[in-house]
UniProtKB/TrEMBL annotation:
Keywords: Cell membrane, Membrane, Menaquinone biosynthesis, Transferase, Transmembrane, Transmembrane helix. The lineage of its organism: Bacteria, Bacillati, Actinomycetota, Actinomycetes, Pseudonocardiales. This is 1,4-dihydroxy-2-naphthoate octaprenyltransferase. PANTHER family: 1,4-DIHYDROXY-2-NAPHTHOATE OCTAPRENYLTRANSFERASE (PTHR13929), UBIA PRENYLTRANSFERASE DOMAIN-CONTAINING PROTEIN 1 (PTHR13929:SF0). It is a multi-pass membrane protein. The gene is menA. Conversion of 1,4-dihydroxy-2-naphthoate (DHNA) to demethylmenaquinone (DMK).
Amino acid sequence: MASVVQWIQGTRPRTLPNSIAPVVVGAAAAHHIDEFKPLHTALALVVSVAFQIGVNYANDYSDGIRGTDDNRVGPFRLTGSGAAEPAKVRLAAFIALGIGAVAGLALVAVSGFWWLLALGAVCIAGAWFYTGGKRPYGYAGLGEIAVFLFFGPAAVLGTLYVQTGEITGIGIGSSIAMGAISAAVLVANNLRDIPTDAVSGKRTLAVVLGDKDTRRLYLALVAVPFLIALGMTVRVPYALLGFLAAPVLLPAVRRVASGRGGRDLIPVLQFTGIAMLAWAVLVSAGLALD
């Protein structure tokens, strides 16, 4: 039986900033127009984190039963390692997605925007079919696009909209920033797994592009939030605070740019995730100061 620590590892803690940072900056965008609602933000955070954990467990289950994780270089996996029965990992994914769905229903109820139930259904389907089902889109090089959309526009603008009933320019810019750096986390993960994914038939974008171009893509994506912060200064000068996240990202950029691979790329996910959260918090502070 898998231990409690192993189940926690199965949530992939290094990736959780992907779900926290968009809600932080979305709430800050709502606060910027004096429409911040704590309850709405809290519910949005539960939805985002629960869905993130759900997709991580679902990915663990689906990749594990396909054999994709049999010879992986990356962090611990419950199914692939044999530490947990596949059915239990699948159940954990369903429970996490169910918690997110209940919180989402409550959020829709308090906000009154019932059409957002459709967006929630799309998010749940996206979480499962990333690596699940007969034709998972994560095996067809579409994972980065999905991550950009779900952790960028969907999470940021969704958090903003349920509080304000509108979409702002600051919100759109922030959603692009969050989507880009969230996709960079997946790019780094898939860069590390190119050798094993290619053998197992998992045709990720990294496998399609190859090592060199995947590194270029990562570097381009992590630059986007800083370009967005610079653009924001036209309306919010304090958005320059976002640049204070650059030193946090630097170790990851060095590892990717220097050509390091295998286990040496594992910390890149953590550094990128922390930099994403730092950017969100710093830009949010800038919006509050404006």
